[in-house]
């Protein structure tokens, strides 16, 4: 192989690779109003709401008083017409439209809406999976979300491309609310978190994992999350969640560093980021060697120490450039750091998509950056004289876009 072949081989294999997207907020078409798609959902993504309110100083309650189409018209005019749509979230919308073959010349949102009026959601989901090469998406399934739970009750048919993950934010971050709901669901969880309550919570976890066929349990945690320590959350984690993780050999995903409602006026767009405590990760990996911990942290400042920690514990699996890190400059920096410290034993990206259309731009943008990093790393490798070959490179790329998720977590999907 010549050094000049590396670019072509990497670009071809990254273009063709089948993707497993291990963290999204997507639902199959059978979940009705929960399955979001189309230009108005795409343009009113909470990232763009935050940018539009910042740019225009519109009163948030005035903005949220508008209907969905009116909000989309407002954002489109303010961020895509009156200003250069140069932010990553704006650029993403345009990447999606142009990848779908929509001509942007008119920059007329009603024109763009016409494209979507001719296609059903099922046809569109097939089209998006086809364009992106995504094989599976992992959902975020909240057992306390009444709207979602209603869909699970009547034995709904689940599109095989959608895999479940049990999201435990309410249980672990708002136990009083969870306890109240658990009692209504028929679980015996009294005032104190005693033996009976813990057994009932374990039953709740196992029943929901079984019902949804969840492949991991996940929780997002604030920057002040600390283990060890005598808190309700830590007791629930160590004496319920981790018990189930060991018994069912199911991974636990920690997503650490989110400050919810820093500006509540922005609703879902009001969350922010804080540097978190890496010693807590060291503690859980050390104390629970049988549990596989998938971890992503939201603060850029945590990334290097997280990579080093992953070198210390082979039950720690890093994934994605989450949320405020899902920008080209940080995806490149973090992917380089991980590859140089961990080889290929991590998952560079997940989409976090809430709207189907986002899969198109989030993956197109990330593939371009991961490709650039890989070409650079392979060229460095080539210079050592190591006999690089196309098969090995292809295998690395298949791993980096999802197979390592299966292998590391021994998932038989
Ligand atoms: O907690 C999470 O899973 C985050 O991804 C939030 O859903 C956040 O609002 C988001 O969509 N980030 O991309
Ligand atoms: Zn998410």
User: Which segments are poorly predicted (pLDDT under 50) over 5 or more consecutive residues?
Assistant: none
Counted by DSSP, the helix tally is 18
Annotation, overall tally of beta strands: 10
* CATH evolutionary superfamily: Metal-dependent hydrolases
Report Rg: 22 Å
Apparent shape? globular
**Which range does the strand content fall in?**
5-15%
- CATH-defined architecture: Alpha-Beta Barrel
Which strands sit side by side, in order, in the main sheet?
4-5-6-9-10
- Assign a percent range to the helix content: 40-55%
CATH topology: TIM Barrel
Biggest sheet layout: 5 strands, parallel
Q: What's the number of domains?
A: 1
Order of helices and strands: HEHHHHHHHEHEEHHHEHEEEHEHEHHH
- Cα-to-Cα separation, first versus last residue: 35 Å
- Average per-residue pLDDT, rounded, comes to 97
CATH class label: Alpha Beta
What molecules are bound to this protein? D-arabinohydroxamic acid, zinc ion
User: What class would the helix/strand composition place it in?
Assistant: alpha/beta
């Amino acid at each position: 192989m010549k050094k000049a072949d590396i670019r072509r081989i990497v670009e071809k294999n990254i273009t063709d690779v089948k993707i497993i997207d291990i963290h999204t907020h997507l639902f199959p078409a059978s979940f009705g109003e929960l399955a979001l798609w189309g230009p108005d959902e795409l343009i009113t993504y909470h990232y763009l709401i935050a940018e539009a309110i910042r740019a225009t100083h519109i009163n948030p309650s005035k903005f949220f008083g508008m209907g969905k189409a009116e909000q989309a018209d407002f954002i489109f005019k303010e961020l895509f017409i009156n200003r250069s749509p140069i932010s990553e979230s704006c650029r993403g919308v345009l990447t999606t439209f142009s990848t779908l073959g929509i001509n942007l010349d008119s920059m007329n949102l009603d024109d763009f809406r016409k494209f979507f009026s001719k296609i059903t959601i099922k046809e569109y989901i097939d089209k998006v999976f086809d364009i992106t090469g995504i094989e599976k998406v992992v959902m975020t399934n909240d057992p306390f979300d009444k709207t979602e739970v209603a869909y699970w009750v009547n034995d709904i048919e689940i599109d095989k491309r959608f895999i479940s993950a049990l999201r435990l934010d309410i249980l672990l971050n708002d136990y009083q609310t969870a306890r109240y709901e658990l009692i209504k669901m028929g679980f015996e969880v009294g005032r104190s978190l005693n033996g009976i309550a813990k057994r009932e919570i374990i039953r709740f976890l196992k029943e929901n994992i079984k019902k949804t066929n969840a492949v991991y349990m996940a929780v997002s945690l604030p920057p002040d999350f600390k283990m060890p320590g005598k808190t309700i959350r830590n007791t629930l984690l160590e004496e319920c969640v981790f018990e189930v993780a060991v018994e069912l050999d199911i991974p636990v995903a920690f997503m650490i560093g989110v400050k919810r409602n820093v500006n509540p006026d922005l609703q879902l767009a009001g969350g922010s980021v804080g540097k978190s405590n890496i010693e807590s990760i060291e503690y859980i990996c050390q104390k629970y060697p049988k549990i596989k911990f998938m971890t992503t942290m939201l603060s850029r400042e945590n990334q290097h120490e997280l990579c080093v920690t992953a070198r210390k514990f082979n039950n720690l699996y890093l994934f994605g450039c989450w949320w405020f890190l899902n920008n080209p400059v940080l995806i490149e920096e973090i992917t380089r750091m991980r590859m140089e410290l961990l080889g290929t034993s991590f998952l560079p990206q997940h989409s976090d998509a809430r709207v189907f259309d986002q899969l198109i731009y989030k993956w197109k943008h990330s593939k371009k950056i991961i490709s650039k990093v890989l070409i650079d790393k392979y060229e460095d490798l080539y210079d050592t004289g190591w006999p690089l070959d196309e098969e090995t490179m292809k295998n690395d790329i298949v791993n980096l876009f999802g197979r390592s998720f299966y292998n590391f977590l021994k998932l038989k999907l």
